[in-house]
Amino acid sequence: MTAFDLTGRLAVVTGARRGIGRAMARALAEAGADIIGVSASLEETGSDVAKDVTAAGRHFETIRTDFADPQAVRDLGADLAARERPVDILVNNAGTIRRTPAAQHSDADWELVLQVNLNAQFALTRAVGATMVDRGRGKVIFTASLLSFQGGITVPGYTAAKHGIAGLTKALANEWAPHGVNVNAIAPGYIATDNTQALQDDPARSKAILDRIPAARWGNADDLAGATVFLASDAAAYIHGVLLPVDGGWLGR
Known about the structure:
Blueprint: E1 10-14, H1 19-30, E2 34-39, H2 48-55, E3 60-64, H3 70-82, E4 89-92, H4 107-135, E5 138-143, H5 156-176, E6 181-188, H6 197-200, H7 203-212, H8 225-232, E7 243-246
Parallel strand pairs: 1-2, 1-4, 2-3, 4-5, 5-6, 6-7
C-alpha cells in the first residue's frame, strides 16, 4: 500500500456528471475509493461517471441535488453526515458560470452563481467537515479557479465566488488542520469543458489564451486527475490551505 492508495475510502464528488468532476471521480476510483457522485442532472443509472467508477472495480452511488436550492444542499449535507459509513474525501466541484459585462450583470445571475459556487460549497462542507473533525481525519478539496487569483472578463459573480473559495479554503484549513482534516483547493487553468466553450469558440479569445499558456494547449479534464488523488491521499498529510494551480504555467507567465 502506497501513500497514494485510497482503497477503502469513500469520496463524494459534486458536479460529477461530466468534465472535471467526472475525471476527478474516475481518478479517485482508480486509486481505490468508492464514489458518491452528486449532480443536479446525474442519471439515476447508466451515467458515464458510474460506468467509469464501476469499470475501476469500485462502488458508485448517485445523488441528484440542485445546488441552486439552499434547502436541497442542507438536506444533502445532513444525509451524508448521518450515514453509518463516513465520508473520507469531499470534492466540492459543482459550479456554474454566467458571462455578462458587469454593467449588465443581473441580480439573478449574480445570486445564482454565488449560491452554486460559494454558498452551497460552505453549507455542504460545514456538514460533512464537522464529521471529519469529530473523527480526526478527512480530506476536503475545493475546485477553485485562475479567477481565484485574477479578475477575468465579463464574469464578476464567478470571480467573486472563486475568490471566496480561496478564502474559505484557508479559513477552514486554519480551524480544521489541528483536527487532522486537510482542506485544500485545485485551481484549474483553461480546461476544455462546457464552461469554457464560449471562449474556445471565440477565435480571438482562444488565440490570446493559448498565446499565454506556456504548455501551448488547452488543458483537458484528465489533467486534474493527479492533483486530485494527491490532495485526497496520505501523501498530502502536511498540506493545508493550499490553492494548487493546474494551469499549464499560466500564472507563471
